[in-house]
Amino acid sequence: MRIGDRAVLIVPALAALLGGLWGVRRGSMWQDEAATYAVAGRALPDLWRTLGNVDAVHGCYYLLLHPLIRLVGDAVPAEVLIRIPSVLATAAAAAGVAAVGRRLVSAPAGLYAGLAYAASPVVVYHAQEGRPYALVAAAVVEATRLLAAALHGPSRRTWVRYGAAVAVACLLNLFAVLALAAHAVTVLVAVARGGGRGVAARWAGAAAAALLAVLPVAWTAFGQRGQVAWLERPGLPEVKALVTRFAGSGVLLAATVVLVVLGLTTSRAGDLAGTTAGRTPGGPGRPPGIAAFAVPMALLPPALLLAVSQIHPLYQDRYVLFSMAGLAMALGAGLARAVRLLPQAAPGWVRAAAAPALPALLLWASLPAQAAVRRIDSRPDDPAAVARIIGSERRPGDAVLFLPSIRRLVAEAYPASFRGVRDAALRAGGAASGTLAGRELPAGEIAASLGAAPRVWVVSRPHPAPADLSSSRDSAKRLLLRESYRRERTVRVLGYAVRLYTRVSP
């Protein structure tokens, strides 16, 4: 590999790494990250028992983070520690996108594609998230890179590695199976271009082997499908939000559309139709080009998830983060073509300046979104703020109640702030009970457990929906507070309300 070829991969990877590390701390984990830290940090028997009850869909991700959390401990802030794998995965994905663009189009197109992926605000958002989606995207990009290699030069080893990459992606999150639909379209294009039936058979065999490997996780996760029962049927607002998050809005969206069209309608044979360099006898006739890879990956997984969610709501845009790789590939091709379209009569310095200027302009247009995804309020809530309030104002004898019990993840994520504060409704903690946030006492036993606590902290959402507090346990907690306590004050922080109650009756 020439030095220039290495730079095509290294520069986007470094850009993604630096972009992911910039502002990675933020000072708080939000609730889903708190679940990551709490579950992945448990002893292996407790972790395994938890996955049998809940969150099996993220089990492989938790097992991957487990040794990191157990080995590093408190040497690194928890919110930084759980995000480092996502930062590294994003760097790997940016390099992978660049590799695909280089193979299918050219080195400049690959460089631009990798940088477009690394600089995308939605990619940065998940690079700084202690959840599995950046790792899923990296595995899908690697599978796509291997598919491109296999279609350009048949190799049994490449197909085996492709199947392994697909399996890893699906084990990290089952919705990665949607990437196979995009790859199926790419393979069909390859067959139509003269790839032969063997290409389709080899792809089908690799995909089937990957799905078989994932089957136990899928079966367990299906039994826990109640976890996503809160999701609602997506509509036009969700589609608009998806477009905005992935492609921007206003001028940025318009520029993205123009560049994508440029990239996908290029007339150069090596840009769209694929190249025949390095073809082996009996291999593909004309390997598919950038359009056959980028368009299905960018459009098909989100479209399928939206369609299925009209029947059974499952839609969340983070489940299809990997589709951003397809958009980045098309953007890279478009940027490379835009530079080539400059008049040949233009001075050399103009052409040289245009090469970095065009991606720099796109980055400049995305800077407001870049800044926004690094703020605490880019996430739904701020558990660390809750922990700071209770940790700084707790007194001996204080108790705490969580409405509903899932809010106990605040204490699971920041246990030091709750030392000495008695969890009056807790029967068994999350690790001991194999649940996310522990098991609570029966409703009739909470009053006796609370006893005569002089002060009670209550942690809830600022305005919880009645359905969220409809359980008998939560009704018992609220009745106790009404009958025996007076609310002294309420402090609202991002996503939470912290209320302090003092006892008024014996």
What does the model show?
The protein has helices spanning 3-21, 31-40, 44-53, 59-72, 78-81, 84-104, 107-119, 121-127, 133-152, 156-172, 178-195, 197-223, 236-247, 250-264, 269-272, 290-308, 324-340, 348-372, 383-393, 409-413, 430-433, 446-450, 472-484, and strands at 399-403, 422-423, 426-428, 439-440, 455-460, 485-493, 496-503. The protein is of the alpha/beta class. It has 2 domains: 3-24 and 83-376, no CATH class; 383-503, Rossmann fold, CATH 3.40.50. Strands 2-1-5-7-6 form a 5-stranded mixed β-sheet, sandwiched between helices. Helix 20 (409-413) links the parallel strand 1 and strand 2 (422-423). Helix 16 (290-308) runs antiparallel to helix 17. It is elongated. The termini are far apart. It is a multi-pass membrane protein. It comes from Microbispora siamensis.
Outline the fold blueprint:
Elements lengths: L2 H19 L9 H10 L3 H10 L5 H14 L5 H4 L2 H21 L2 H13 L1 H7 L5 H20 L3 H17 L5 H18 L1 H27 L12 H12 L2 H15 L4 H4 L17 H19 L15 H17 L7 H25 L10 H11 L5 E5 L5 H5 L8 E2 L2 E3 L1 H4 L5 E2 L5 H5 L4 E6 L11 H13 E9 L2 E8 L3
Parallel strand pairs: 1-2, 1-5
Antiparallel strand pairs: 3-4, 5-7, 6-7
InterPro entries: LipidA_mod_glycosyltrf_83, RgtA/B/C-like
Main location: membrane
Subcellular location: Cell membrane
